[in-house]
Write a structure and sequence with these properties.
Low-confidence stretches: 1-8
Distance between the termini: 25 Å
CATH architecture: 2-Layer Sandwich
Structural class: alpha+beta
Number of strands: 11
Strand content: 5-15%
Shape: globular
């Protein structure tokens, strides 16, 4: 995976095959909060200066109370999660607490100071009031692909797993001090932005380039990285990127989701998946998953299934694709989510036991815990 800091216009040629295939890389967006977790702390600039992470491993996101931590490409999802865990610890040592959640549970509407960098000034100019509601945080998982054709196959196949991933990762039931009734309120929030959501199936890489050119032209976009689909080819990095999962508090859940995506991407790439389900059906299933979390019934290539059955089907595919890669322990984390609850379930359980304070303290403690 090449350097992330180069300009990101339409790549010629794409970087697929420039690294070992099926390496996994993580990008996690985390909130910066005061010690109690009650208030956002807009201190990203100070934390990043003190952190002094190696180039490309930590950086700004749009909000002053948010940072992004990144792993280098790894063969193992556990090793990638371990690296972001080390960065979490370093960020805390730099003078802040972190919170892994899709949105802050109680921060009021409009408390969303933005970072004054050119990219985010452009986002603010185009998004206006949408970007100033409240910070939102996602977990992004990249998988390196050996060639453009494999990338499009992985992309087409991963589209159909998006509802399951939304359900497993749901970690924002509370927003603006109230229970939203959803497992992922963040999922609903970001749907107001352009170029978000389930993208169309693609015939081949040329189809992708044609579509991206049309979207960039229609939106007056400076480069293709402003097309924020829920899953997308990322030619400059030589990866396919799954984007729209809530940020996680527990590193064990980060590793589990990353290993599942790594295995599914390899499965879909190697079997050369063809376009199947329409985007509209997948998108409807994603909403159901964001609403109901682990209790959802989601669309799969085999038809509608309850989340536990869909997850075990996906685990079978991912496990077979990663057999011998030592990822069994990470994949076991999906069963742990099914057994112990996703982030949304744990947030609601903490609130039921000790109110909002307990919910916030649990998120801060889980985010601070090692893998």
């Amino acid at each position: 995976m090449p350097d992330r800091d180069r300009p990101a216009r339409r790549p010629e040629p794409p970087a697929f095959g420039s690294s070992e295939p099926f390496l996994v890389g993580l990008e996690e967006e985390l909130l910066l909060v005061e010690a109690s977790g009650e208030r956002l702390a807009p201190v990203a600039a100070q934390v990043l200066e003190a952190l002094q992470a190696p180039s490309g491993l930590a950086g700004h996101e749009a909000y002053a109370a948010e940072i992004e931590l990144r792993s280098v490409p790894r063969a193992s999802a556990v090793r990638a999660a371990t690296q972001v865990g080390e960065l979490r610890a370093a960020a805390r040592a730099a003078g802040t607490e972190l919170m892994g959640a899709g949105v802050h549970p109680t921060s009021p509407w409009g408390v969303a100071d933005l970072v004054q960098l050119a990219r985010y000034r452009d986002v603010e100019r185009t998004m206006r009031g949408l970007i100033r509601r409240t910070p939102e945080c996602a977990l992004h998982v990249h998988v390196a692909l050996p060639d453009p054709e494999a990338a499009i196959s992985a992309y087409n196949g991963l589209r159909e797993h998006l509802p399951l991933l939304v359900a497993l990762a749901g970690n924002s039931p509370w927003w603006f001090g109230n229970d939203s009734g959803l497992a992922s309120a963040r999922h609903a929030q970001v749907r107001a932005y352009p170029r978000r959501g389930v993208p169309p199936a693609l015939r081949d890489f040329d189809h992708y380039l044609e579509l991206i050119d049309a979207v960039m032209r229609a939106g007056g976009l400076p480069d293709y990285t402003f097309v924020w689909w829920d899953v997308r080819p990322h030619p400059r990095l030589g990866t396919v990127e799954v984007r729209e999962m809530d940020s996680q508090s527990r590193l064990v859940d980060v590793a589990a989701l990353a290993a599942l995506i790594q295995g599914l991407a390899r499965h879909e790439a190697e079997r050369r998946s063809a376009p199947r389900a329409p985007a509209e059906a997948i998108d409807e299933s994603c909403f159901r998953a964001a609403r109901d979390g682990l209790q959802a019934v989601v669309e799969t290539p085999e038809g509608p299934l309850p989340v536990p059955a869909a997850a075990r089907r996906a685990l079978g595919l991912a496990g077979a694709a990663l057999r011998g890669a030592g990822e069994e322990e990470a994949l076991d984390g999906i069963e742990r989510i099914l057994r112990e609850g996703a982030g949304a379930d744990r947030q609601r359980a903490a609130h039921a036991q000790g109110g909002v304070g307990a919910l916030l303290r649990q998120l801060v403690a889980e985010t601070a815990a090692p893998l």
